[in-house]
């Protein structure tokens, strides 16, 4: 979390810093700030809260802009920044930051950029410095004073301390970096080196964009895509010295490294709500196309084998597999739990699913006969990256399922399975989850084909089910009025319980997560059979219980569990494809989905829950796309 940008060149500097930061807002929105080197000083502008607050501050500074700007129109604002009529106009080098608070509350003092006491160094940071307290104490003993509560300010002071022993800026930076434990992506400028932008990286993403009109740094590609597609991926412990016409990269000892640039095969992302009120609603509606896109060229018709050439596991590898582990966080973890169910059901290999943050702090039991699957929308989640590295160290084949084939995880993978969900803006994941679940169907069926673990008629029937999914999802979206009405009826509830069994249990977890993260209503998902082991004590006439019931092995069981809840006066909501008169006496609200086999129901049962969460949050007036305290990419452990 947190995003950094930087630029050195003669194009409008503030324009780039702001437009770059706007593409990184998914990484945090607690505060924003920029530092520009005007030739005789480093000027800092910061604002608490979203990037718009910083834009307003800069707009007020912009004499020409103030006269010409009308309303909040961003395009006009950007033109205003282009004609910045103050000394900042001369600035050719600058850095910017968007914050997700880790150390210190989200206020202006803790906002980046941070400067050293004598204003010789200004820097922006993404990551966490784990030994910052020890360093801070040492620096305080040397007479340094601190203004903020952040770990980042320590780095600025440390670099200035190192500058006392050298007038080589790169060397001062390297001297400071050697003392840091933890993760950092840094953009650094020096008062006495007005032509060079410094960048450094360890365990947090950082790219350098090269162009004829200057050079850029950014935490992520969308921030530079409008300006260039030539990108150098900085690796851990590398430090870049970037000027308008040159980029030099060194290792931590100061040895020069030759690195090639890559051309990013992307077009600039047009981030547009297309008439929807929120990105989340737009992304929910994109799901039929996302399914088609993820199936494209992989499953053409039910009688043909699935094409999944990305998975580099041979039949021989597969025969020797003794364990499959899936690691992920949050919504991706819920997709992984569905994946476990599918792989165990279709090929009979035991699968363990673990939250990455748990996996990395216990003995890792992997070897060359294990397959480790990392699942991540962003491909940058710090815990999952660490988990993947540990599995690789043990010799496990690592398959990464991600929406970002350019990400750190994708580059670590032995096999890469991209999910083609398209850019997901809303912090709450919807379409990427659906594409991840679909990727698990493809993978499980492919493994079953290679392994011969399913009869060919079953395989064909299952593939038909997958091919029918887009139309079925469209049917649910066409019926959203019913879900809207349900949301209005229940939006006042203070708590929700979601229950299901079998393959839909992860859907209950996902329904609860979606609701709590965007509406701040307390919600919990349980296996329906577990209610009577404790949670049933919570039930009374104020508690909505959402039961997921699809025809199959567990239908009758979930139905009995729902009756038990009804008997405790809970307010019952069903998500179901079943026409069963028994439901009418139990459920106050029944949301229907198209007929489907239980094994192929999780995508269809999740979509009404995404919509339910969306409509409740929207009705409560919450910031649906950017819920409080969250960020889209969680790059700290
Ligand atoms: C919830 C959500 C998060 C992410 C989690 C992992 O809607 O989006 O729970 O799923 O932070 O992120 P990725 O998938 O990028 O590793």
For the biggest sheet, the summary is: 8 strands, antiparallel
CATH superfamily of the largest domain: Aminohydrolase, N-terminal nucleophile (Ntn) domain
CATH topology of the largest domain: Glutamine Phosphoribosylpyrophosphate, subunit 1, domain 1
Backbone structural class: alpha/beta
Helix count? Answer: 21
Outline the low-pLDDT stretches.
Answer: 63-74
Strand order of the largest sheet: 3-2-4-1-10-9-11-15
Straight-line distance between termini: 10 Å
CATH architecture of the largest domain: 4-Layer Sandwich
Task: Give the SSE layout.
Elements lengths: L2 E6 L4 H11 L7 E7 L4 E7 L2 H11 L1 H6 L5 H9 L10 E7 L14 E2 L5 E6 L5 H10 L10 H12 L5 H9 L6 E7 L2 E10 L4 E5 L2 E5 L11 E4 L4 E5 L4 E5 L4 E2 L4 E2 L15 H7 L1 H9 L19 H6 L2 E6 L1 H18 L3 E5 H4 L10 E7 L5 H12 L3 E6 L5 H5 L2 E4 L12 H21 L4 H23 L1 H11 L4 E6 L4 H15 L2 E6 L16 E6 L5 H13 L3 E6 L4 H6 L2 E4 L9 H18 L18
Parallel strand pairs: 16-17, 16-18, 18-19, 19-20, 21-22, 21-23, 23-24, 24-25
Antiparallel strand pairs: 1-4, 1-10, 2-3, 2-4, 5-6, 6-7, 7-8, 8-12, 9-10, 9-11, 11-15, 12-13, 13-14
Helix pairs in contact: 1-4, 5-6, 6-7, 9-15, 9-16, 11-15, 11-18, 15-16, 16-21, 17-21, 18-21
The chain binds fructose -6-phosphate (F6R).
The site of fructose -6-phosphate has 14 residues, from helix 11 and helix 18.
What distinguishing features does this structure have?
637 residues; alpha/beta; Glutamine Phosphoribosylpyrophosphate, subunit 1, domain 1; Rossmann fold; 8-stranded antiparallel sheet; 7-stranded antiparallel sheet; 21 helices; 37% helix; 21% strand; globular; binds fructose -6-phosphate
């Amino acid at each position: 979390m947190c995003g950094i940008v930087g630029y050195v060149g003669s194009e409008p500097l503030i324009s780039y810093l702001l437009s770059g930061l706007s593409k990184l807002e998914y990484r945090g929105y607690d505060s924003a700030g920029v530092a520009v080197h005007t030739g005789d000083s480093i000027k800092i502008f910061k604002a608490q809260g979203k990037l718009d607050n910083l834009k307003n501050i800069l707009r007020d500074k912009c004499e020409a802009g103030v006269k010409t700007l009308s309303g909040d129109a961003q395009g006009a604002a950007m033109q205003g920044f282009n004609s910045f009529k103050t000394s900042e106009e001369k600035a050719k080098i600058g850095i910017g930051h968007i914050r997700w608070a880790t150390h210190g509350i989200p206020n202006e003092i803790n906002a980046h950029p941070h400067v050293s006491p004598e204003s010789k160094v200004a820097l922006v940071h993404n990551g966490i410095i784990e030994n910052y307290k020890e360093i801070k104490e040492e620096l305080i003993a040397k007479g340094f004073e601190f203004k903020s509560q952040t770990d980042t300010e320590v780095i600025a002071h440390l670099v200035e301390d190192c500058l006392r022993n050298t007038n080589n800026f790169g060397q001062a930076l390297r001297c400071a970096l050697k003392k840091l434990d933890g993760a950092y992506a840094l953009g650094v400028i020096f008062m006495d080196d007005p032509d060079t932008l410094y960048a450094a990286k360890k365990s947090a993403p950082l790219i350098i964009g090269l162009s004829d009109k200057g050079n850029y740094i950014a935490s992520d590609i969308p921030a530079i895509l409008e300006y260039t597609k030539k990108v150098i991926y900085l690796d851990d412990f590398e430090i870049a010295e970037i000027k308008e016409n040159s980029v030099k990269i060194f290792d931590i000892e100061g040895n020069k490294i030759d690195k090639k640039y890559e051309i990013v095969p992307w077009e600039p992302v047009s981030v547009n709500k297309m008439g929807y009120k929120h990105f989340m609603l737009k992304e929910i509606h994109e799901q039929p196309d996302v399914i088609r896109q993820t199936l494209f060229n992989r499953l053409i018709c039910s009688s043909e084998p699935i094409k999944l050439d990305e998975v580099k596991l041979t039949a021989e590898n597969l025969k020797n597999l003794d364990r499959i582990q899936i690691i992920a966080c949050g919504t991706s973890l819920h997709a992984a739990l569905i994946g476990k169910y599918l792989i165990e059901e279709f090929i009979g290999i035991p699968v363990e699913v673990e939250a990455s943050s748990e996996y990395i702090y216990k003995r890792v039991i992997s070897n060359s006969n294990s397959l480790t699957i990392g699942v991540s929308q962003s491909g940058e989640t710090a815990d999952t990256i660490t988990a993947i590295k540990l599995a690789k160290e043990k010799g496990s084949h690592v398959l990464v399922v991600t929406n970002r084939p350019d990400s750190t995880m994708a580059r670590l993978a032995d096999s890469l399975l991209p999910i083609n969900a398209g850019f997901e803006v809303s912090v709450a994941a919807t379409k990427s989850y659906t594409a991840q679940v679909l990727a698990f169907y493809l993978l499980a069926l492919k493994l079953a084909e290679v392994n011969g673990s399913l009869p060919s008629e079953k395989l064909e029937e299952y593939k038909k089910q997958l091919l029918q999914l887009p139309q079925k999802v469209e049917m649910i979206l066409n019926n959203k009025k019913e879900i809207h009405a349900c949301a209005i009826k229940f939006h006042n509830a203070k708590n929700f319980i979601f229950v299901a069994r079998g393959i839909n249990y992860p859907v209950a977890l996902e329904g609860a997560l979606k609701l709590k993260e965007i509406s701040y209503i307390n919600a919990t998902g349980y296996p329906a059979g577990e209610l009577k082991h404790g949670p049933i004590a919570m039930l009374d006439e104020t508690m909505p219980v959402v039961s997921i019931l699809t025809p199959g092995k567990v239908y009758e069981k979930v139905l009995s569990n729902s009756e038990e809840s009804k008997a405790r006066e809970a307010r019952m909501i069903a998500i179901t494809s079943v026409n069963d008169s028994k439901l009418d006496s139990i459920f106050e609200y029944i949301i229907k989905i198209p007929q489907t086999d239980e094994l192929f129901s999780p995508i269809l049962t999740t979509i009404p829950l995404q919509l339910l969460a969306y409509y409740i949050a929207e009705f409560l007036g919450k910031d649906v796309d950017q819920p409080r305290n969250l960020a889209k990419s969680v790059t700290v452990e």
